[in-house]
């Protein structure tokens, strides 16, 4: 009886750990994607800022336009710092769950939207259709 309870407890703990790792992974993936998007936004603001500065020198843009773009760029850079802080926290949490060094740096890749079983089923159906022809 105690052995069954012990196995059940281990199974429950394993299930909870897998759930926690999955959640941490997907939240990390989301943060990483947001940070990449924010970097692209900052790059766009930098390019727009250079273009506006040139036009300002040519008197084809207003100083207010240049200041507005600089303010938006600064705001985007601040948002990136916040996102990178969140990303760092989520990496640390996943490292903790996996029993690794908390400061181990890594990045995650998005998983395929189809499960391996679905891919195998799709391939089997295609093979079956070829055989039936």
Describe this structure in words.
The protein has 133 residues and is mainly alpha-helical. Helix content is 82%, strand content 0%. The chain has helices at residues 2-57, 63-98, 116-132. Helix 1 (2-57) runs antiparallel to helix 2. The longest helix is centred in the N-terminal third of the chain and has 56 residues, at 2-57. It is elongated, with a radius of gyration of 25 Å. The N and C termini lie far apart (57 Å). The mean pLDDT is 88.
Structure at a glance:
This protein is an all-alpha fold and 133 residues long. Helices cover 82% and strands 0% of the residues.
**Helical residue percent?**
over 70%
Supply the number of helical segments: 3
- Mean pLDDT across every amino acid position: 88
Q: Helices and strands: which structural class?
A: mainly alpha
Helix and strand run: HHH
| Rg of Cα set | 25 Å
According to DSSP, the number of beta strands is 0
Strand content: under 5%
Largest sheet features: none
| Mass-distribution shape | elongated
Spatial separation of the terminal alpha carbons: 57 Å
Show unreliable segments.
none
């Amino acid at each position: 009886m105690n052995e069954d309870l012990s196995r059940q407890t281990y199974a429950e703990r394993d299930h909870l750990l897998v759930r926690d790792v999955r959640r941490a992974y997907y939240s990390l993936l989301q943060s990483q994607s947001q940070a990449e998007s924010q970097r692209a936004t900052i790059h766009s603001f930098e390019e727009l800022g250079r273009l506006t500065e040139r036009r300002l020198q040519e008197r084809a843009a207003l100083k207010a336009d240049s200041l507005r773009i600089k303010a938006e760029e600064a705001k985007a850079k601040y948002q990136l710092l916040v996102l990178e802080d969140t990303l760092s926290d989520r990496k640390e949490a996943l490292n903790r769950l996996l029993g690794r060094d908390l400061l181990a740096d890594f990045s995650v890749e998005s998983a395929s939207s189809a499960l391996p079983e679905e891919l195998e089923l799709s391939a089997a159906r295609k093979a079956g259709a070829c055989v039936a022809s």
